[in-house]
Amino acid sequence: MNEFTIFWDWVSFAVRWLHVVTGIAWIGSSFYFVALDLGLNRRPDLPQGAHGEEWQVHGGGFYHIQKYLVAPAAMPEHLTWFKWESYATWLTGFAMLCVVYYAGADLFLIDPNVLDISAPVAILISVASLALGWIVYDLLCKSPLGQNDTLLMLVLYAVVVFIAWGYTQLFTGRAALLHLGAFTATIMSANVFLVIIPNQKIVVADLIAGRTPDAKYGRIAKTRSLHNNYLTLPVLFLMLSNHYPLAFGTQFNWVIASLVFLIGVLIRYYFNTQHARKGNPTWTWLVAAVLFVIIMWLSTVPKILTGEPKVSQASQALMASPHFSTVRDTVLGRCAMCHAAEPGWEGVHRAPKGVMLETDAQIADHAREIYLQAGRSHAMPPANVTSVTEQERALLATWYEEARR
Questions:
Q1: How far is CA 221 from the centre of its chain?
Q2: Chain segment 61-78, per-residue pLDDT in tens
Q3: Which residue of 203, 280, 282, 396 is surrounded by the most CB atoms within 10 Å?
Q4: Quick check: 321 and 396 in contact, CB under 8 A?
């Protein structure tokens, strides 16, 4: 059991690393092609069917790129498809969701003080919400609203705000923000898998058959691609939010997430406008800074707790261990000066990662993290600043291992 805990933590690390690598590949290609598309020059002597061109220099060489709005007259011999970056990013992201939040549902996904549900029910809600998000988004895009980009974006933003609030009524704060990111990333990847690539395949099939492709397929694909472009920065924040308790550990975490979407859109608007050579809207940075200050203020509002916190059966078993009293003394003496509602360690203003270790229940709830971070490794405390002894680390490991047998 204990070897499996360590093995599973390494699996989490491997999946997370794959997700980061594939995410960089997808975001990089997405940002590049949006910038390329917006910066195209349209000269009168372009080849027939060409929409624009761009000269670029990189790595000691020059690149001459031409874009065909519908398609070239003949199918090129070599055609590179940009799709696997998106698919791999979603697949590794969902794998990480399974490894961390589904396998560790009792610790990371479910908060009985928010909604007391079983792990299978929580997982079912999670998966269903991701699928439902795509369905609602796709129907809105295909509805009459899809003919008005501004109105569509306002409605979609209202949906995002509602979902942000809804997730905080279902899961832990950390899981709520992560799920909002997964919700948005699912829409982005489904755009590629179900709209952009299929539309491009229709165009290719028409060319091979000698038919003139319909320009609408390119327009639809471009619109969905632009949506993805504006959603990327908020998704990045949400995927990293689990490291920042000031974002997820407050009663206004859903408002913070909603404002982050606005900041991301403003930043992308600035760069997209510059790439299109349509001006220098520096005002976007001022508005983004104001929104960030509001987020900082919201993060300082104390979270209101009602009722006595509930304790899981697993935590009760850990508290019943004969080692628990000594473990509690060790954690309170070596860890709780930082991991507290009001940390006493100079320079630490909020409990790292939102983990508080002041009560018996809190210590038991975070037993696995204590085991991995301070029992089986020396990750905590940093630089062993509180001088945890090897005997104390061994006791932390023994306490967890015996209770989990």
A1: 23
A2: 998 888 887 777 777 778
A3: 396
A4: no
